[in-house]
Amino acid sequence: MKLSYVFWSVLCLSLLFYSCQSRKGTVNGEAAIDLPEIMERGELVVLTANSSTSYFNYRGEPMGFQYELAQQFARSLGLKLKLKVVNNPSEMVRCLIRGEGDLVAYNLDITNAWKDSLIYCGEENITYQVIVQRRGKDALKDVTQLPGKEVYTTPGKYYDRLMNLNSELGGGINVHKVEADSVSEENLITWVAEGKIDYTVATNEIAKINRTYYPNLDIGLVISFDQRSSWAVRKTSPLLAEAADKWHKENINSSEFKASARRYFELNKRPTHGSILSVKDGKISHYDDLFKKYAKEIGWDWRMLASLAYTESNFDPNVISWAGARGLMQLMPATAHAMGIPAGKESDPEESIKAGVKYIARLQNIFSKVPDKGEQTKFVLAAYNAGVGHITDAMALAEKYGKNRYLWDHHVDHYILLKSNEDYYQDPVCKNGYFRGTETYNFVREVVERAEVYKKKIKG
């Protein structure tokens, strides 16, 4: 939605005063760049961080809730979006004040320490910590039930809150601080979902995203006070802050805003799989002939290609994933276009398989230095699921820490798991930031294992 005529009139009346200030370069030591200068350059520079809630790269395409909102806001102003990814909130604020960005699109904590330098703007979010546990009649309903329970958490704010809560309750909570740098909060949530541990702690936003992967999670037990957070600009950018406030107010109930929120916090990220045909009848799917036809082009056993398609789409040519991937082979829009699928044909089974095989051939070329063909297939499957960048990051990490960058099992697969841990995705050898590696780790195993089952039961 474009900003109103009245707002633009106010902006124009203010233009002379603010442009005069900005010509000085700084005001009280802060960069003086406001909406008029930004409009003139035609580009909004947004600062954010890699995370499951803000921004990440998925299958070669930028994604993330805060990224999408920033994109929508920039579009409403008629501006191009330029994204700058920084490591943490403190660095965001420093970059903002130095003029290296115009807007922080991230849930930045509203604190007194930053109020003198920032204008908080946009939607005010409320975050808090919750106990993550499995659903069921035995799920805890009140913090007074925590004494006697085993709660696992990472060091830092979660551990500190649990220890304070333990003190408030008079002791009894068995708090386990998991200090291994290879374990992140998302790993602990996965352990809860899989029944390896019973309880961990996360913010409500992280918990909501993880519940879209694990519907068996209960995230209703709040254990902390509310923390307010929002976007922010410099004190010298009041017009930009006003524009962000106006946009959020007018668009928070729009279909586009709601679709973004639903994509990240509600849609099931793991569609249920079920067999369409019985392998006992000698067929895997209705598309076996197509798999046989095109698998030859990449030197694959057709049953491996069928296993990949099943894992991606459950052999449903009309399925659309939470991220927008379509068709039997679940290609992202940009990839489908690049591989030659005609517009409107994304759900055509043959077009999808043909394009998927073309993409696999490209991945085989990228990973041609992997000497063993079986290993190369695992790298190709991983890149098909995650995007090439995250796999090359994991290879670089493997090499850095003394593993073989050309072996998947127990080498590179270990480091794709660590890509959700900031100690690893912020490592200088990583170029593609945060990634939820658990999904890719499981994906490769599932495709390979299912292909072996198909090979035993279905003739080649």
TrEMBL record:
Q: Which UniProt keywords apply?
A: Cell outer membrane, Membrane, Signal
Give the matching Gene3D superfamilies.
1.10.530.10, Periplasmic binding protein-like II
InterPro entries per UniProt? Lysozyme-like_dom_sf, Solute-binding_3/MltF_N, Transglyc_AS, Transglycosylase_SLT_dom_1
Q: Where in the cell is it found?
A: Cell outer membrane
Q: Name one GO biological process term.
A: peptidoglycan metabolic process
Q: Does the keyword Signal apply?
A: yes
Start and end residues of each Solute-binding protein family 3/N-terminal domain = 43-268
Instruction: Please give one Gene Ontology molecular function term for this protein.
Output: peptidoglycan lytic transglycosylase activity
Q: Name one GO cellular component term.
A: cell outer membrane
> Which first-to-last residue range defines the signal peptide?
1-24
What's this protein's family per the entry? Answer: Belongs to the transglycosylase Slt family.
- Supply the name of the protein: Lytic transglycosylase F
